[in-house]
């Protein structure tokens, strides 16, 4: 998605054994290498390596399987969350995962994993019970509470540099009935919007079923509201409705999967890079304006009051 650098070679493994062989190869020839799951991170070099190295693209490691009792799932890192959700929801289950369908599994899990329901379930790594990992010496091991505990601890939010994870064994949750709605907040309400967000954060400490996710840019803001019960417009969200707004998606009683699909429809695959360029242009304009104001504030004949 955001592989801004062009590698010398791309390898697409289909098993942990393939990844192990890749580790042996890179060690033997001494090449630089990078590993990519979904490539969602837009920073240059985070999802690839330049012409001097090898890119290990995990997109063909895309298995998703559910245990017979539905309590656990094995998810491979080449998946994106939309596919994972769709697969698990067909059996009435869900995973605690990314907030957009096109986010890759690997980077999200290894970065900790902030979800819509972190107030209930914690970070996504709290649901991981085992990692299958290929180490730099090409060995394939498992890391969990009883085997390789130090590595298991480090992988829980410690990033992607400890090894190449080829399977995540996770606890699943029910794809239950919830309420959700999306609001587009007018740009004239930016200050008040921030105040309401702060008020909500304080109130939500006593109501972990409530979730609000924000986007704020030069043209206004958006908030995605959700409640982990089939209760329409709970009172904890009332302050948001007092702001000037338009609907992004309507008040709905549905499932977790329905909510993810509603949000992801507003952020189609491939839109991130376009959004970055738009915000960059507006940010440059704001920066120039701020520089002028700062210069004026330092003139002996001018004053600046907060």
UniProtKB/TrEMBL annotation:
It comes from the Eukaryota. InterPro entries: FAD-bd_PCMH, FAD-bd_PCMH-like_sf, FAD-bd_PCMH_sub2, FAD-linked_Oxidoreductase, Oxid_FAD_bind_N. Coiled coil: none annotated. Pfam families: FAD_binding_4. Transmembrane segments: none annotated. PROSITE patterns: FAD_PCMH. One of its GO terms (molecular function) is oxidoreductase activity. Residues 3-175 form the FAD-binding PCMH-type domain. Keywords: FAD, Flavoprotein, Oxidoreductase. Belongs to the oxygen-dependent FAD-linked oxidoreductase family. PANTHER family: BINDING OXIDOREDUCTASE, PUTATIVE (AFU_ORTHOLOGUE AFUA_1G17690)-RELATED, FAD-BINDING PCMH-TYPE DOMAIN-CONTAINING PROTEIN. This is FAD-binding domain-containing protein.
């Amino acid at each position: 998605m955001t592989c801004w650098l062009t590698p010398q070679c791309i390898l697409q493994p289909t098993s942990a054994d393939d990844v192990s062989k890749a580790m042996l190869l890179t060690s033997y020839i001494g090449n630089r290498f990078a590993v990519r799951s979904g490539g969602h991170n837009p920073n240059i070099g985070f999802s690839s390596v330049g012409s001097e190295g090898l890119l290990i693209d995990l997109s063909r490691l895309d298995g998703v399987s559910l245990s017979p009792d539905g309590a656990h799932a094995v998810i491979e890192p080449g998946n994106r969350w939309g596919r994972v959700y769709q697969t698990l929801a067909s059996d009435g289950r869900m995973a605690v995962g990314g907030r957009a369908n096109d986010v890759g599994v690997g980077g999200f899990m290894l970065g900790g994993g902030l979800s819509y329901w972190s107030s209930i379930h914690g970070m996504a790594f709290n649901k991981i019970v085992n990692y299958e990992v290929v180490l730099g010496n090409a060995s394939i091991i498992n890391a969990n509470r009883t085997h390789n505990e130090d590595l298991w601890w480090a992988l829980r939010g410690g990033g992607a540099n400890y090894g190449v994870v080829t399977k995540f064994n996770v606890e699943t949750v029910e794809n239950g009935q919830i309420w959700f709605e999306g609001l587009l907040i007018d740009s004239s309400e930016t200050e008040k919007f921030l105040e309401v967000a702060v008020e909500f954060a304080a109130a939500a400490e006593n109501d972990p079923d409530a979730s609000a996710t924000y986007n704020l840019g030069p043209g206004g803001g958006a908030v995605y509201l959700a409640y982990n019960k089939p209760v329409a417009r709970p009172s904890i969200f009332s302050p948001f409705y007092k702001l000037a707004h338009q609907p992004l998606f309507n008040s709905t009683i549905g499932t977790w999967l329905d909510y993810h699909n509603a949000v992801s429809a507003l952020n189609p695959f491939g839109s991130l890079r376009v959004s970055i360029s738009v915000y960059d242009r507006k940010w440059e304009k704001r920066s120039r304006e701020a520089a002028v104001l700062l210069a004026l504030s330092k003139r002996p004949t001018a004053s600046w009051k907060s």
